[in-house]
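Dear colleagues,

As part of the handover before I leave the project, I'm documenting each prediction I ran so the next person doesn't have to rerun anything. This entry is a single chain, and its sequence is reproduced below.
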Amino acid sequence: MDHNNILAVVLAGGKSKRFGRDKSQVKLGNKILIDYILTEIIDFYKDILIVTNEPIKFLDSNKISIVNDIKKGLGPLGGIFSAMKWVRDNKKDYKWISTFPIDTPFFKKKHLIKFYKEINLEKSNLFFMKSKNKRHNIFGLWSLELYEKLESALNRGDRKVELWANEIGVKTIDFEHENNKDPFFNINTEKELEIAKKLLKNDKLQ
């Protein structure tokens, strides 16, 4: 797979309702949450696009650009469409976008490498990661050929990634948890942040 055909997209436009404040800016160890995923992917792509609706801090790099959602309240599907529109509006050559959340600090570059290695681009226009029978819909690879279908779906009121992906067809790549470590552990609450702090501390002790 030619990584030059892929734009990395970090979806940071969520409201973080359950957390009560912007998760992307929450400190975990010596970094804010958004920088964990950026650190893993920054050397992997030519460009990274962050979709956000508020001014936020993040890793300093000339590879990173910012775009707002075309319209607030459209959820992750709206963020993905906003990224696709950014590609078109800026006449970029990307054929695919690879999407990432901001709240999974234990996801590593090696998982991304495995994802791409096992994908057969001829089988689908959409691929998600999956582990322990759970599909991780924000960790995805989306063809720009889905642009019109996604635009139509948003116009008719679709908001759920899960349902829309099922409708258009999606392939999954399975992951196992190594040493009982979940690379897809995500932080939605203060309690989960405390769990993440303990997991991070254990990693440093090993």
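The domain at 3-205 is CATH 3.90.550.10 (Spore Coat Polysaccharide Biosynthesis Protein SpsA; Chain A). Strands lie at 6-11, 27-28, 31-32, 48-51, 64-67, 96-100, 126-131, 134-143, 171-175.

All the best with the project,
I.
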